[in-house]
Amino acid sequence: MAAHPPSPEPTPAPSHLELFLGMQQVALSSFGGGLSAWSERIVVEQRRWMDEQAFLTGLTVARLLPGPNQINMAVYIGSRFHGLSGALVALAGMLLLPFSLLMLLGLAYYYWHETMLVDRLLAGVITASAGMALSMGFKIAHSYNRDPVALGIAAASFLAMDLFHVRLIPLVLVAGPLAMAWYWPRRTAQP
Question: Measured between alpha carbons, how far is 99 from 104 in angstroms, rounded to an integer?
């Protein structure tokens, strides 16, 4: 596996308008899933608001909290830069236009759902979103390729869910505390 280039230095904090437009770009870039991949691409790679480690920390927190991951992530990103007002602006950017489009698409689907073209279009979107989710997984995997414990936790979690059909909440309640205990900062002994 080729070495991934280091992330460039983050840019200065975005303004409220930049935050709103950035979250709209994230929300409008993904149809049918893959928001984490687009969020990482826009926030880390394109706009350089965060480095990869800060993004992964936020993504982990967002996934552990109840509610939709990307809504939690938008609140995390907004609050990181502008506190409560940033969280509200990022949330509005994530929801306002996509919600309006969703209502219009729902209305259109109601009238044309039996058309074969609509069925094929949705099948293509689902396939693309699955590919984007895999892309995100491969992008963040290089951060952990020298950490056998992280890879072991990831593999055990995948096997528990896929082969043994363990539900997400019990898995998080077991694997989360184990991972936190393993990675909890420890004091080094003073000589």
Answer: 9
Averaged pLDDT score across all residues of the chain: 84
DSSP per position, 11-43 = PSPPPHHHHHHHHHHHHHH-SSS-HHHHHHIII
- Does the predicted model carry a pTM greater than 0.85? no
Rounded distance between C-alpha atoms, residue 100 and residue 79, angstroms: 24
Please provide residue 59's backbone torsions phi and psi, each rounded to the nearest 5 degrees. Answer: -65, -40
pLDDT value for 160: 93
Burial (0-12, 13-18, 19+ Cβ within 10 Å), 76: buried
Output b/e per residue, 38-61; b: 16+ Cβ within 10 A.
bbbbbbbeebebbebebbbebbee
Q: What is the rounded distance in angstroms from the CA atom of residue 159 to the CA atom of residue 174?
A: 14
Tell me the CA distances in angstroms from 185 to 16, 75, 129, one per residue in order.
34, 26, 36
Q: At 172, which amino acid appears?
A: V
Domain ranges of the chain: 16-126
Q: Give DSSP secondary structure letters for 141-165.
A: HGGGTT-HHHHHHHHHHHHHHHTS-
**Cα 186 from chain centre:** 28
Measured distance CA(83)–CA(63) in Å, rounded: 20
Quick one: how far is CA 132 from the chain centroid?
11
